[in-house]
Automatic annotation (TrEMBL):
InterPro entries: Cro/C1-type_HTH, Lambda_DNA-bd_dom_sf. One of its GO terms (molecular function) is DNA binding. It comes from Rhizocola hellebori. This is Transcriptional regulator. Transmembrane segments: none annotated.
Length: 140
């Protein structure tokens, strides 16, 4: 899993939750629209200074965004085979692996040893009870 991708997903989710455009946030954060887009897509790693500026433009504390990222990574680590401890143990995951802790649902798809797609979404009351492909993690 690429940490920059999880950070980008967290930033994008906050921006979209505020119904703001890339242009609005990039202007407020004093970063180019294209670079912010690359950060949100996990293609570029933001420096700590730039990440703080983006968080400020979103009206979020850096610690809040990093906590969201940490929670997502922690949940993914608990799904068997998603984050192996050594490269030699890297499994090939064809089907998405699904996990939920009642508040957040995470879908992980390992496309190759260097690329893992992690999607996280907040669960609304009543949405976490449906069936899902893969494994379900409860009681986390």
């Amino acid at each position: 899993m690429l940490l920059r991708r999880v950070i980008g997903d967290a930033l994008r989710a906050r921006r979209q939750g505020q119904h703001r455009t890339l242009r609005e946030v990039s202007t407020a954060a004093n970063v180019s629209l294209g670079y912010l887009s690359e950060i949100e897509r996990g293609q570029k790693e933001a420096s700590s200074e730039l990440l703080a500026s983006i968080c400020d433009a979103l009206g979020a504390r850096l610690s809040e965004v990093l906590r969201d990222v940490s929670d997502t990574v922690a949940l993914a680590e608990q799904v068997e085979g998603v984050l192996p401890s050594t490269p030699a143990q890297t499994p090939r995951v064809e089907e998405p692996v699904w996990a939920a802790d009642g508040q957040v649902a995470v879908t992980v798809r390992r496309e190759n040893p260097l690329r893992t797609t992690l999607r996280a979404r907040n669960l609304r009351p009543g949405n976490g009870s449906g069936t899902a492909r893969g494994r379900e993690l409860t009681g986390v």
